[in-house]
Amino acid sequence: MNARLDHRAPLVFDTRELGRRPGALKRISRSVAAPKDLGIEVIGVPQGATVELDLRLESVMEGVLVTGTARAPLTGECVRCLEPLERELEADFQEMYSYPDADDRSRDADTGDDAEEEDRLFLEADLFDLEPVLRDAVVLALPLQPVCREDCPGLCAECGARLADDPDHHHDAADIRWAALQGLAETMRDGEKDNAPRERGDDPQEK
């Protein structure tokens, strides 16, 4: 059984003032501490960082429509050179929180879309929890391949040196012409072995 919502939790909001009056509006601005694991492996909002929320709550027939924007700092690392990076995130979102009895009405209507019904969020004693919506919005707004700069050259494939620090970085390589001659010599040696005369008795068909 899910725990009841706590109105004192930073990401729980109260819609009681709307009074189930369709068209009633309420605007809320709140600064909250970012929850744990708000992001993906390579970039995200640090736990405890300040997240600025601007919300618009609108009462509709089915429930409360929440529209908002979240702003927060991001930290991560460049996927090319692994250097730390910092960004500012702005994520927009919109979600419907249905009244508890809206579930009964929807069953009577028998929409037939079970997947959509499972994804619905509901108010609980006029409260709603914004955290799952915030998490989805942040992840969708994140760069999947963050880089410190668009033209970051990355790391040397041989020694791991950061190429941006040493644009002339290189390793001495063998002359490809010598490599080609070496390969030809090996091919000739293999051919000589195949063409060498066999000693009597070497042929497995001679018995």
UniProtKB/TrEMBL annotation:
Q: Report residue spans for region: Disordered.
A: 184-207
Q: Which InterPro entries match?
A: YceD
> Could you name the domain of life of the organism this protein comes from?
Bacteria
Bias regions of kind Basic and acidic residues — which residues?
187-207
Protein name per the record:
DUF177 domain-containing protein
